[in-house]
Amino acid sequence: MVKKMNTVLALFFVFSVFSFLSGGFESKALAEEFELTLNKKFLLAVYLPWYTGSPNYNHWKWEDKVPPSSHASKFMPLLGLYDNEADESIIKAHVMQMKASGINAVIINWFGRDTIEDRSTNLLVEYLRENNIGFSIMIDDQPYRYSNYNDYNDPKRHEEFISDIKYIRNTYFILSNYLTLNQKPMLQNFAKQFSDTDPSPTIPFTWWSDINQEVDFAFVGQIVPQESEFVGFNKGAYAWVQFEGDYAENPDYYGEPNLEWFLPHIQWRKTQDLTSDFYAIPAIWPGFDDSGVYSWTNDPSQKRIIKRIINAQNTLGLTYQYIKKFIQNSDNTLKINAIQLVTFNDWNEGSQIEASVELSMEGIQDTARIAKDFGVKFTELSNDQFNALAKFLYNIKLFSNEQRQELENLFFSENYENFTSKVDGIINCFGCDVKADGKIGLEEAIHALQVTSGMR
Protein backbone atom coordinates (compact mmCIF):
# COMPACT_ATOMS: atom_id res chain seq x y z
CA MET A 1 0.00 0.00 0.00
CA VAL A 2 2.83 2.39 0.93
CA LYS A 3 4.74 1.44 -2.21
CA LYS A 4 1.60 2.05 -4.31
CA MET A 5 1.10 5.43 -2.64
CA ASN A 6 4.73 6.40 -3.32
CA THR A 7 4.24 5.47 -6.97
CA VAL A 8 1.14 7.65 -7.20
CA LEU A 9 2.93 10.57 -5.57
CA ALA A 10 5.88 10.16 -7.91
CA LEU A 11 3.59 10.15 -10.95
CA PHE A 12 1.76 13.18 -9.59
CA PHE A 13 5.09 15.00 -9.14
CA VAL A 14 6.21 14.16 -12.68
CA PHE A 15 2.85 15.28 -14.09
CA SER A 16 3.00 18.50 -12.07
CA VAL A 17 6.51 19.31 -13.32
CA PHE A 18 5.47 18.52 -16.90
CA SER A 19 2.37 20.71 -16.56
CA PHE A 20 4.46 23.53 -15.16
CA LEU A 21 6.99 23.29 -17.96
CA SER A 22 4.27 23.02 -20.58
CA GLY A 23 2.61 26.08 -19.11
CA GLY A 24 5.93 27.87 -19.30
CA PHE A 25 6.38 26.99 -22.97
CA GLU A 26 2.76 27.95 -23.68
CA SER A 27 3.19 31.30 -21.92
CA LYS A 28 6.34 31.98 -23.91
CA ALA A 29 4.54 31.13 -27.15
CA LEU A 30 1.66 33.39 -26.22
CA ALA A 31 4.05 36.19 -25.28
CA GLU A 32 5.84 35.88 -28.60
CA GLU A 33 2.56 35.91 -30.49
CA PHE A 34 1.77 39.39 -29.17
CA GLU A 35 5.31 40.82 -29.26
CA LEU A 36 5.38 43.79 -31.63
CA THR A 37 9.04 43.62 -32.63
CA LEU A 38 8.85 40.18 -34.24
CA ASN A 39 7.96 39.53 -37.88
CA LYS A 40 4.19 39.22 -37.39
CA LYS A 41 2.11 42.02 -38.95
CA PHE A 42 -0.33 43.87 -36.69
CA LEU A 43 -3.35 45.93 -37.62
CA LEU A 44 -4.11 47.79 -34.38
CA ALA A 45 -7.50 49.47 -33.94
CA VAL A 46 -8.23 52.22 -31.40
CA TYR A 47 -11.33 51.26 -29.41
CA LEU A 48 -13.59 53.64 -27.45
CA PRO A 49 -15.24 51.88 -24.48
CA TRP A 50 -17.31 54.85 -23.29
CA TYR A 51 -20.88 54.34 -24.58
CA THR A 52 -23.93 53.61 -22.44
CA GLY A 53 -27.58 53.19 -23.31
CA SER A 54 -30.77 54.55 -21.78
CA PRO A 55 -31.22 56.60 -19.67
CA ASN A 56 -27.76 58.26 -19.52
CA TYR A 57 -26.61 57.72 -23.12
CA ASN A 58 -23.00 58.50 -22.29
CA HIS A 59 -21.29 59.90 -25.43
CA TRP A 60 -24.48 59.52 -27.47
CA LYS A 61 -25.68 62.79 -25.89
CA TRP A 62 -24.12 66.20 -26.56
CA GLU A 63 -25.57 69.66 -25.88
CA ASP A 64 -28.93 69.64 -27.71
CA LYS A 65 -28.33 66.17 -29.22
CA VAL A 66 -30.50 64.10 -26.89
CA PRO A 67 -31.30 60.45 -27.67
CA PRO A 68 -33.32 58.72 -28.79
CA SER A 69 -34.64 61.43 -31.14
CA SER A 70 -31.10 62.62 -32.03
CA HIS A 71 -27.56 61.66 -31.12
CA ALA A 72 -24.00 63.01 -31.11
CA SER A 73 -22.80 61.61 -34.41
CA LYS A 74 -23.28 62.11 -38.14
CA PHE A 75 -23.77 58.35 -38.41
CA MET A 76 -26.03 55.72 -36.87
CA PRO A 77 -24.42 52.43 -35.75
CA LEU A 78 -25.96 49.33 -37.26
CA LEU A 79 -26.22 48.11 -33.67
CA GLY A 80 -28.19 51.21 -32.66
CA LEU A 81 -27.22 53.53 -29.79
CA TYR A 82 -25.53 50.75 -27.90
CA ASP A 83 -24.15 50.15 -24.43
CA ASN A 84 -20.63 48.70 -24.46
CA GLU A 85 -20.19 49.12 -20.72
CA ALA A 86 -22.40 46.21 -19.66
CA ASP A 87 -24.00 44.57 -22.73
CA GLU A 88 -22.01 41.46 -23.59
CA SER A 89 -23.91 40.96 -26.86
CA ILE A 90 -22.55 44.32 -28.06
CA ILE A 91 -19.00 43.45 -27.01
CA LYS A 92 -19.25 40.15 -28.90
CA ALA A 93 -20.66 41.95 -31.95
CA HIS A 94 -17.65 44.26 -31.90
CA VAL A 95 -15.23 41.32 -31.74
CA MET A 96 -17.08 39.70 -34.65
CA GLN A 97 -16.51 42.83 -36.74
CA MET A 98 -12.84 42.90 -35.72
CA LYS A 99 -12.39 39.30 -36.88
CA ALA A 100 -14.12 40.08 -40.17
CA SER A 101 -11.93 43.15 -40.78
CA GLY A 102 -8.56 41.51 -40.04
CA ILE A 103 -7.93 43.56 -36.89
CA ASN A 104 -5.64 41.41 -34.74
CA ALA A 105 -4.97 43.79 -31.85
CA VAL A 106 -6.90 46.57 -30.12
CA ILE A 107 -5.69 49.76 -28.42
CA ILE A 108 -8.22 50.56 -25.69
CA ASN A 109 -8.63 54.23 -24.78
CA TRP A 110 -8.75 54.06 -20.96
CA PHE A 111 -9.89 56.65 -18.41
CA GLY A 112 -9.09 55.22 -15.00
CA ARG A 113 -10.35 52.73 -12.45
CA ASP A 114 -14.02 52.33 -11.58
CA THR A 115 -15.16 54.08 -14.74
CA ILE A 116 -17.47 53.21 -17.62
CA GLU A 117 -14.37 52.69 -19.75
CA ASP A 118 -12.75 50.28 -17.28
CA ARG A 119 -15.89 48.18 -16.87
CA SER A 120 -16.18 47.94 -20.65
CA THR A 121 -12.49 47.03 -20.95
CA ASN A 122 -12.90 44.20 -18.43
CA LEU A 123 -15.66 42.73 -20.58
CA LEU A 124 -13.86 43.22 -23.87
CA VAL A 125 -10.45 41.74 -23.09
CA GLU A 126 -11.81 38.28 -22.31
CA TYR A 127 -13.55 37.97 -25.68
CA LEU A 128 -10.44 39.31 -27.40
CA ARG A 129 -8.36 36.60 -25.72
CA GLU A 130 -10.81 33.88 -26.72
CA ASN A 131 -10.48 34.99 -30.34
CA ASN A 132 -6.70 35.38 -30.34
CA ILE A 133 -6.82 39.18 -30.64
CA GLY A 134 -4.22 41.16 -28.72
CA PHE A 135 -4.75 44.42 -26.84
CA SER A 136 -3.00 47.14 -24.93
CA ILE A 137 -4.06 50.16 -22.90
CA MET A 138 -3.89 53.76 -24.10
CA ILE A 139 -4.17 55.77 -20.92
CA ASP A 140 -5.90 59.09 -21.51
CA ASP A 141 -4.71 62.21 -19.72
CA GLN A 142 -8.22 63.64 -19.28
CA PRO A 143 -8.84 62.17 -15.81
CA TYR A 144 -5.73 64.01 -14.62
CA ARG A 145 -6.19 67.18 -16.65
CA TYR A 146 -9.79 67.62 -15.55
CA SER A 147 -9.78 66.09 -12.09
CA ASN A 148 -11.15 67.76 -8.98
CA TYR A 149 -7.66 68.87 -8.00
CA ASN A 150 -6.53 72.23 -9.28
CA ASP A 151 -2.96 71.47 -10.29
CA TYR A 152 -0.41 68.71 -10.61
CA ASN A 153 1.21 69.73 -7.33
CA ASP A 154 -1.77 68.34 -5.44
CA PRO A 155 -0.50 65.00 -4.10
CA LYS A 156 -3.95 63.40 -4.41
CA ARG A 157 -3.84 63.77 -8.18
CA HIS A 158 -0.43 62.14 -8.34
CA GLU A 159 -1.63 59.34 -6.06
CA GLU A 160 -4.55 58.72 -8.42
CA PHE A 161 -2.16 58.33 -11.34
CA ILE A 162 0.13 55.93 -9.44
CA SER A 163 -2.84 53.81 -8.35
CA ASP A 164 -4.13 53.66 -11.90
CA ILE A 165 -0.80 52.46 -13.32
CA LYS A 166 -0.52 49.78 -10.64
CA TYR A 167 -4.09 48.73 -11.36
CA ILE A 168 -3.27 48.39 -15.08
CA ARG A 169 -0.25 46.24 -14.17
CA ASN A 170 -2.22 43.98 -11.86
CA THR A 171 -5.31 43.71 -14.07
CA TYR A 172 -4.17 43.89 -17.70
CA PHE A 173 -0.39 43.46 -18.04
CA ILE A 174 -0.73 39.94 -16.65
CA LEU A 175 -3.09 38.73 -19.40
CA SER A 176 -1.70 36.42 -22.06
CA ASN A 177 -2.89 38.53 -25.01
CA TYR A 178 -1.45 41.84 -23.79
CA LEU A 179 0.84 43.44 -26.40
CA THR A 180 4.53 43.71 -25.58
CA LEU A 181 7.32 45.84 -27.01
CA ASN A 182 10.80 44.37 -26.50
CA GLN A 183 9.29 41.94 -23.99
CA LYS A 184 7.74 44.72 -21.91
CA PRO A 185 4.01 45.57 -21.75
CA MET A 186 3.30 48.47 -24.11
CA LEU A 187 1.50 51.41 -22.54
CA GLN A 188 0.36 54.19 -24.85
CA ASN A 189 -0.52 57.67 -23.64
CA PHE A 190 -3.13 59.82 -25.35
CA ALA A 191 -2.10 63.35 -24.48
CA LYS A 192 -0.56 66.50 -25.86
CA GLN A 193 2.46 66.45 -23.59
CA PHE A 194 4.76 66.73 -26.59
CA SER A 195 3.36 69.97 -28.01
CA ASP A 196 5.35 73.14 -27.38
CA THR A 197 2.36 75.33 -28.20
CA ASP A 198 -0.44 73.64 -26.24
CA PRO A 199 -0.80 75.34 -22.83
CA SER A 200 -3.15 72.69 -21.38
CA PRO A 201 -1.72 70.72 -18.45
CA THR A 202 -0.61 67.15 -19.08
CA ILE A 203 0.91 64.24 -17.21
CA PRO A 204 4.41 65.38 -16.13
CA PHE A 205 7.45 63.42 -17.21
CA THR A 206 8.51 62.81 -13.60
CA TRP A 207 5.24 61.00 -12.93
CA TRP A 208 5.97 58.59 -15.75
CA SER A 209 9.66 58.10 -14.99
CA ASP A 210 9.06 57.59 -11.27
CA ILE A 211 6.32 54.97 -11.65
CA ASN A 212 8.36 53.18 -14.34
CA GLN A 213 10.92 52.39 -11.64
CA GLU A 214 8.27 50.31 -9.89
CA VAL A 215 6.08 49.17 -12.80
CA ASP A 216 7.98 47.92 -15.85
CA PHE A 217 6.45 48.96 -19.19
CA ALA A 218 7.40 50.33 -22.60
CA PHE A 219 6.07 53.87 -22.93
CA VAL A 220 4.71 54.85 -26.37
CA GLY A 221 3.41 58.36 -26.98
CA GLN A 222 3.49 60.86 -29.78
CA ILE A 223 6.68 62.17 -31.38
CA VAL A 224 8.77 64.31 -29.04
CA PRO A 225 11.10 67.21 -29.93
CA GLN A 226 14.77 66.27 -29.80
CA GLU A 227 15.31 68.36 -26.68
CA SER A 228 12.37 66.87 -24.74
CA GLU A 229 13.05 64.98 -21.52
CA PHE A 230 10.88 62.18 -22.93
CA VAL A 231 13.60 61.37 -25.51
CA GLY A 232 15.04 58.02 -24.56
CA PHE A 233 12.14 57.27 -22.21
CA ASN A 234 9.53 56.81 -24.90
CA LYS A 235 10.27 53.56 -26.72
CA GLY A 236 8.09 54.35 -29.70
CA ALA A 237 5.54 56.73 -31.17
CA TYR A 238 2.17 56.48 -32.85
CA ALA A 239 0.60 58.84 -35.38
CA TRP A 240 -2.85 60.40 -35.16
CA VAL A 241 -5.17 62.22 -37.54
CA GLN A 242 -4.32 65.94 -37.56
CA PHE A 243 -5.87 69.13 -38.91
CA GLU A 244 -3.40 71.67 -40.20
CA GLY A 245 -3.17 74.54 -42.67
CA ASP A 246 -6.13 75.27 -44.92
CA TYR A 247 -7.96 71.99 -44.39
CA ALA A 248 -11.30 73.77 -43.88
CA GLU A 249 -11.12 75.28 -47.36
CA ASN A 250 -9.61 72.22 -49.02
CA PRO A 251 -12.21 69.57 -49.99
CA ASP A 252 -9.44 67.13 -50.90
CA TYR A 253 -7.65 67.30 -47.54
CA TYR A 254 -7.19 63.87 -45.96
CA GLY A 255 -4.54 64.59 -43.31
CA GLU A 256 -1.48 64.63 -45.57
CA PRO A 257 0.66 66.90 -43.32
CA ASN A 258 0.74 64.25 -40.60
CA LEU A 259 1.51 61.46 -43.06
CA GLU A 260 4.19 63.55 -44.76
CA TRP A 261 5.88 64.36 -41.45
CA PHE A 262 5.60 61.27 -39.25
CA LEU A 263 7.43 58.56 -41.20
CA PRO A 264 10.19 60.80 -42.62
CA HIS A 265 10.85 62.06 -39.09
CA ILE A 266 11.08 58.49 -37.78
CA GLN A 267 13.48 57.62 -40.59
CA TRP A 268 15.59 60.70 -39.81
CA ARG A 269 15.76 59.73 -36.13
CA LYS A 270 17.06 56.30 -37.08
CA THR A 271 19.68 57.63 -39.51
CA GLN A 272 20.87 60.05 -36.82
CA ASP A 273 20.93 57.13 -34.38
CA LEU A 274 19.03 59.21 -31.84
CA THR A 275 16.95 56.18 -30.89
CA SER A 276 17.96 53.24 -33.05
CA ASP A 277 15.39 50.85 -31.55
CA PHE A 278 12.56 53.40 -31.69
CA TYR A 279 9.28 51.69 -32.66
CA ALA A 280 7.09 53.57 -35.15
CA ILE A 281 3.33 53.03 -35.50
CA PRO A 282 1.92 55.02 -38.43
CA ALA A 283 -1.83 55.60 -38.58
CA ILE A 284 -4.62 55.26 -41.12
CA TRP A 285 -8.14 56.65 -40.88
CA PRO A 286 -11.36 56.34 -42.90
CA GLY A 287 -12.44 59.98 -42.55
CA PHE A 288 -13.45 62.39 -39.84
CA ASP A 289 -16.55 64.42 -38.98
CA ASP A 290 -17.01 65.81 -35.48
CA SER A 291 -19.91 68.12 -36.36
CA GLY A 292 -22.09 65.84 -34.21
CA VAL A 293 -20.32 67.19 -31.12
CA TYR A 294 -19.55 70.67 -32.56
CA SER A 295 -15.81 69.89 -32.39
CA TRP A 296 -16.30 69.35 -28.65
CA THR A 297 -17.67 72.89 -28.16
CA ASN A 298 -21.17 74.27 -27.59
CA ASP A 299 -21.10 76.07 -30.95
CA PRO A 300 -23.09 74.20 -33.65
CA SER A 301 -21.10 75.93 -36.41
CA GLN A 302 -17.86 74.23 -35.36
CA LYS A 303 -16.76 71.14 -37.26
CA ARG A 304 -13.69 69.37 -38.63
CA ILE A 305 -14.28 67.19 -41.64
CA ILE A 306 -12.24 64.78 -43.73
CA LYS A 307 -14.43 63.23 -46.39
CA ARG A 308 -14.59 59.46 -46.71
CA ILE A 309 -14.29 59.58 -50.49
CA ILE A 310 -11.76 61.93 -52.12
CA ASN A 311 -11.32 62.01 -55.89
CA ALA A 312 -13.14 58.68 -56.23
CA GLN A 313 -10.82 56.98 -53.70
CA ASN A 314 -11.70 56.05 -50.15
CA THR A 315 -9.70 57.91 -47.52
CA LEU A 316 -8.76 54.77 -45.62
CA GLY A 317 -7.07 53.48 -48.76
CA LEU A 318 -5.38 56.83 -49.44
CA THR A 319 -3.77 56.93 -46.01
CA TYR A 320 -2.67 53.31 -46.27
CA GLN A 321 -1.21 53.71 -49.78
CA TYR A 322 0.90 56.66 -48.59
CA ILE A 323 2.40 54.55 -45.81
CA LYS A 324 2.93 51.57 -48.11
CA LYS A 325 4.74 53.65 -50.76
CA PHE A 326 6.95 55.35 -48.20
CA ILE A 327 8.02 52.01 -46.74
CA GLN A 328 8.76 50.66 -50.22
CA ASN A 329 10.89 53.72 -51.03
CA SER A 330 12.81 53.70 -47.75
CA ASP A 331 15.40 51.16 -48.95
CA ASN A 332 14.52 48.94 -45.98
CA THR A 333 15.81 51.49 -43.46
CA LEU A 334 12.33 51.73 -42.01
CA LYS A 335 10.74 48.51 -40.80
CA ILE A 336 7.03 48.87 -40.11
CA ASN A 337 5.10 45.84 -38.91
CA ALA A 338 2.21 47.60 -37.17
CA ILE A 339 -0.33 50.15 -38.39
CA GLN A 340 -2.81 51.86 -36.08
CA LEU A 341 -6.39 52.35 -37.29
CA VAL A 342 -8.00 55.57 -36.03
CA THR A 343 -10.59 54.34 -35.10
CA PHE A 344 -12.81 51.28 -34.70
CA ASN A 345 -15.72 53.12 -33.10
CA ASP A 346 -15.30 56.84 -32.42
CA TRP A 347 -18.79 57.83 -33.52
CA ASN A 348 -18.46 61.31 -32.01
CA GLU A 349 -15.60 62.23 -34.33
CA GLY A 350 -16.90 60.19 -37.25
CA SER A 351 -13.67 58.22 -37.69
CA GLN A 352 -15.24 54.80 -37.11
CA ILE A 353 -15.02 51.78 -39.39
CA GLU A 354 -17.68 49.96 -37.39
CA ALA A 355 -20.79 49.07 -39.41
CA SER A 356 -23.32 51.87 -39.79
CA VAL A 357 -26.77 52.28 -41.33
CA GLU A 358 -25.41 54.82 -43.81
CA LEU A 359 -22.36 52.83 -44.93
CA SER A 360 -23.36 49.27 -43.95
CA MET A 361 -20.18 47.11 -43.91
CA GLU A 362 -18.07 49.43 -46.08
CA GLY A 363 -15.57 50.33 -43.37
CA ILE A 364 -15.18 46.72 -42.25
CA GLN A 365 -14.66 45.48 -45.81
CA ASP A 366 -12.21 48.27 -46.68
CA THR A 367 -10.22 47.45 -43.54
CA ALA A 368 -10.17 43.75 -44.44
CA ARG A 369 -8.67 44.56 -47.86
CA ILE A 370 -5.93 46.63 -46.19
CA ALA A 371 -5.24 43.93 -43.59
CA LYS A 372 -4.79 41.35 -46.33
CA ASP A 373 -2.48 43.60 -48.36
CA PHE A 374 -0.41 44.46 -45.28
CA GLY A 375 0.12 40.79 -44.51
CA VAL A 376 -2.18 40.14 -41.55
CA LYS A 377 -3.19 36.48 -41.32
CA PHE A 378 -6.94 35.98 -40.96
CA THR A 379 -9.85 34.11 -42.53
CA GLU A 380 -11.51 36.28 -45.15
CA LEU A 381 -15.28 36.57 -45.60
CA SER A 382 -17.15 36.46 -48.90
CA ASN A 383 -19.58 39.22 -49.87
CA ASP A 384 -22.52 37.02 -48.87
CA GLN A 385 -20.92 36.42 -45.48
CA PHE A 386 -20.34 40.15 -44.95
CA ASN A 387 -24.01 40.74 -45.81
CA ALA A 388 -25.05 38.06 -43.32
CA LEU A 389 -22.97 39.77 -40.63
CA ALA A 390 -24.67 43.09 -41.44
CA LYS A 391 -28.09 41.44 -41.05
CA PHE A 392 -27.03 39.91 -37.75
CA LEU A 393 -25.83 43.26 -36.38
CA TYR A 394 -28.91 45.19 -37.43
CA ASN A 395 -31.31 42.63 -35.97
CA ILE A 396 -29.26 41.70 -32.91
CA LYS A 397 -32.00 42.54 -30.40
CA LEU A 398 -34.65 40.60 -32.30
CA PHE A 399 -32.93 37.23 -31.94
CA SER A 400 -33.71 35.07 -28.95
CA ASN A 401 -30.77 34.48 -26.62
CA GLU A 402 -30.44 30.93 -27.93
CA GLN A 403 -30.45 32.07 -31.56
CA ARG A 404 -27.91 34.81 -30.92
CA GLN A 405 -25.57 32.54 -28.99
CA GLU A 406 -25.72 29.88 -31.70
CA LEU A 407 -24.88 32.47 -34.36
CA GLU A 408 -22.05 33.91 -32.26
CA ASN A 409 -20.56 30.45 -31.78
CA LEU A 410 -20.74 29.70 -35.50
CA PHE A 411 -19.01 32.98 -36.32
CA PHE A 412 -16.29 32.73 -33.67
CA SER A 413 -15.49 29.19 -34.83
CA GLU A 414 -15.18 30.65 -38.36
CA ASN A 415 -17.98 28.45 -39.65
CA TYR A 416 -19.04 31.35 -41.86
CA GLU A 417 -21.09 29.32 -44.35
CA ASN A 418 -23.40 27.90 -41.69
CA PHE A 419 -23.52 31.30 -39.99
CA THR A 420 -24.74 32.85 -43.25
CA SER A 421 -27.42 30.27 -43.98
CA LYS A 422 -28.61 30.32 -40.37
CA VAL A 423 -28.89 34.13 -40.32
CA ASP A 424 -30.86 34.12 -43.57
CA GLY A 425 -33.18 31.45 -42.28
CA ILE A 426 -33.98 33.32 -39.06
CA ILE A 427 -34.23 36.75 -40.71
CA ASN A 428 -36.75 35.49 -43.24
CA CYS A 429 -38.97 34.43 -40.36
CA PHE A 430 -39.43 37.95 -39.00
CA GLY A 431 -38.90 39.91 -42.21
CA CYS A 432 -36.65 42.71 -40.95
CA ASP A 433 -33.59 43.17 -43.11
CA VAL A 434 -30.91 45.79 -43.73
CA LYS A 435 -31.10 48.42 -46.41
CA ALA A 436 -28.50 46.62 -48.56
CA ASP A 437 -31.19 44.11 -49.48
CA GLY A 438 -33.81 46.77 -50.13
CA LYS A 439 -36.25 45.68 -47.43
CA ILE A 440 -35.78 48.74 -45.27
CA GLY A 441 -34.81 52.25 -46.34
CA LEU A 442 -32.15 54.50 -44.81
CA GLU A 443 -34.54 56.89 -43.04
CA GLU A 444 -36.72 54.04 -41.85
CA ALA A 445 -33.69 52.18 -40.48
CA ILE A 446 -32.42 55.21 -38.57
CA HIS A 447 -35.87 55.84 -37.14
CA ALA A 448 -36.24 52.19 -36.12
CA LEU A 449 -32.87 52.23 -34.34
CA GLN A 450 -33.70 55.47 -32.54
CA VAL A 451 -37.07 54.20 -31.40
CA THR A 452 -35.60 50.93 -30.10
CA SER A 453 -32.38 52.44 -28.72
CA GLY A 454 -33.73 52.09 -25.21
CA MET A 455 -33.67 48.31 -25.71
CA ARG A 456 -30.35 48.39 -27.49
Feature tags:
456 residues; alpha/beta; TIM Barrel; 10-stranded mixed sheet; 40% helix; globular; disordered N terminus
What does this structure look like?
The longest helix is centred in the first third of the chain and has 32 residues, at 2-33. Strand 7 (236-238), helix 7 and strand 8 (279-281) form a beta-alpha-beta unit. The strands form 3 sheets. Strands 1, 2, 3, 4, 5, 6, 7, 8, 9 and 14 form a 10-stranded mixed sheet that branches. The chain has one domain (31-379): Glycosidases (TIM Barrel, Alpha-Beta Barrel). The protein has 13 helices and 14 strands. Helix 7 runs parallel beside helix 8. It is an alpha/beta fold and 456 residues long. It is globular, with a radius of gyration of 23 Å.
